[in-house]
């Protein structure tokens, strides 16, 4: 009986922690979100500055301290999330579960590898910490609207992606035929020419590869104009797609699934659309 | 009695000045707007030309005269605006009140600092005068339609902004890993690589940082194509947002609030939506 | 009586010529349009090739012949248009009347100036012939849909234009402050910095002016991302504008006004919307 | 009687092969599609890598083997398509029939030409194999939605294309007049200046041609801003076009016409809209 009481109380504690770290409706939950966002931002900034030679030389001990501070914070957050999930394994194997783990793991591994292992592995691990930025998506509200827009237009965006690629392959081959034999050309191979075509069609235009012949200028001009006229089509398709879905954008709750932590459920949802568990805490 | 008469007349003068400098419905008000716009344009042009070495050497005395002419004009305008506002403090602390003050203040301060102070301060003050261009927003009709469009899509634009940033951080890190160790690379640090990623995704493409390895070319190509496909989504979201709000765009008056000078009130508005004061002159 | 007959016949001839050169509904009118479009294209191409040194040296006599052939053709066309217009002066002073005149005049003037006049005047006259390309707008069907779209969104495009300009002026000034004192900088003056800001915000990105300092990179990144997010707004505004006007796009006739030659009249129009004359031949 | 039976069985075999290689509704048909897409991708990749000098030197024998493997595969596919079409000639003369033939023919021709013919012909034939990528359009579902969007907006896109071209011709001529006489200019001829104008207006901005004079910078700035404001119009037009057609996008079947192999028929179509033959297998 007493044990049952304790279990109940523990559950309430679990539930309270859950509300703070997974949801954002209570003041504590909002504060947690904001603090975490700042921590993510600062920790990513620290990893970035580590690669700037002059900064690293000057503040190397401060960077080390900051690194361990954030690693311990993110480890604590990860363990808390594991503990208060009803199905920890499901959270651990979800996208954000993996991201949360990757946010703290690399620092520990580099500790064990220090000195013994090669430079390449350490370098990957160091850079992996940059992926902490993905934790942000967890906490930025409305991100799922963008995601839904992209997912809904997925099929058409894919087709468009391939259409551009096919166009670029053909245009690149033609450019390679025209410019490939000119002395001092930058069109040294078809992949290079396709790179040029894509950089041109998408209006990026670095200018590291440029045409030299008159025919090349003419073909480039036609290619750019065609790409420019074509850009309107995918934009229009996505707008149409988004407009059609406008009415379907019902109210989403900020509640997360207690089992796997998935966000973006509809207000009237009873079961998680990702793992099928009940959304309410019993 | 006589004093009361005088007060009334003064009030009518105040009101008439108000109508001329804050509103644009009377012929005098329209003329004032046009003249002021020309003055702003010419004064900004003068500050710009001051920084062109060859021009400054040739016309330094003319530029000095022009500078003082516009400073006195803008000072007079600022004092008039203060005088005819019903709540001068509110105008003075509003966005345009500060901009109007900043339009004339720097010239006076440089006068007192001449010779005594360092170059850096004078330089900031000189350049601050460029912000006069913001006075224009005051007088360009329809600017609030763009502003409303932006404000209404604020949340989604912010999410999009962060989504691009996150994408650029990840892509930049990957590019740094690929290109960072190549000899003579421009990818000297992660911030530099993120700069490259943003310049590429947004299709700016300066070409000051370019890839050298084959893998780098491949990843850049994928990155650009993804960015290109993604550009359609925010465009579509804003269009949807604007279309939804189409019916709400009721008629706006060109009248300004007599207390704080805020523009863009609805035709049937009785109270200012910024400071809550009555909009009519009693 | 006989004279009256003759006048009537002349009028019918005039009308028939009118139908051929101003309208495009008869087979002869369509043929005339196509031939003229080819002539314009070829004549513009000839002027273009004249500026290519290697081509000019090789084919200078051929280019001279081609030039005179097209000049005489366009002169004949201009005279015919003048002759068959009911109010020749109105046609002559209309936009396309001036363009048509400018298409043949420069060649005659260079003939008289040959040898006597300076190089600069001849050069302007030579290049003026490139404006023949504007004659095309006369004959490209559907051009008025684009024009109407632009005209209808005129006010909002203007505001957007100024908003971008104001943003660029502020951003350029800030960049000048950051980069202006660095050695070997390209930010030599504020106009140069504003050029950089506009080239960046509009995603053109030539790369002739690039930042050197870390702070400059950071500010540029923010500036580009803001510009990129903002691009969606004018696009959305124009789409909304075009959609609203969709129903109003009634059928336009291909008939031109017999007095001034204006195109794009509605099917039920009785009077020219430009000059107010009756549209039918009496 | 037995022969009739055999014919019937043969027909069923033909029909079964047809279902596999032309349609994608049966599991076998889907598998065939996926395998073919992989083969196309790999074969195009092989041709691309052949032009990379270091790769070609290392793996020249492997590339030769791969080339013949894919050529034989595509030949078999082409012959099967010919065999199971009810009207082989119609398939052979259709767009995809020609593409399918071009996918295998060049390899055979180079075999016969080896040693005897000049380099130029062999080079064209080698590069022609890149057009295999067009076979992909055959198999990418939804490609016809993009195509229909483009076709439906065809007239307006053409007008827009010409409008941009006319604008670029005028702007390029003006730039040539301004920059053409400066020493060390890149604006060596009008075609070069038009290339600059198009690269600028479409926001590509390679940076290989850049202005040197102050006036040139000013005109470029105006040109870019105008182009930037104008981009919204075609986008809006296409969106409007696509939205109008939204309701017409009825369900399309994945069935292909048994005579000519055309795709994208409506669910209730009885006759092919391309060749007029019945769509069902009798």
TrEMBL record, chains A, B, C, D:
Q: Which Gene3D superfamilies match?
A: 1.10.287.70, Voltage-gated potassium channels. Chain C
Q: What is its main location?
A: membrane
Which cell locations does it reside in?
A: Membrane
Q: Name one GO biological process term.
A: action potential
Do you know which SUPFAM superfamilies this protein is assigned to?
A: Voltage-gated potassium channels
Matching entries from Pfam families are given as: Ion_trans
What keywords are assigned to this protein? Ion channel, Ion transport, Membrane, Potassium, Potassium channel, Potassium transport, Transmembrane, Transmembrane helix, Transport, Voltage-gated channel
Q: Which organism is it from?
A: Rubritalea squalenifaciens DSM 18772
What's an example of a GO molecular-function annotation for this chain?
A: voltage-gated potassium channel activity
Family matches, as InterPro entries? Ion_trans_dom, VG_K_chnl, Volt_channel_dom_sf
Spans traversing the lipid bilayer: 34-53, 65-83, 95-122, 157-178, 215-238
The record describes its membrane topology as: Multi-pass membrane protein
This protein is called what? Voltage-gated potassium channel
Q: Where is the Ion transport domain?
A: 30-245
Q: Which PANTHER family does this chain map to? A: POTASSIUM VOLTAGE-GATED CHANNEL PROTEIN SHAB (PTHR11537:SF254), VOLTAGE-GATED POTASSIUM CHANNEL (PTHR11537)
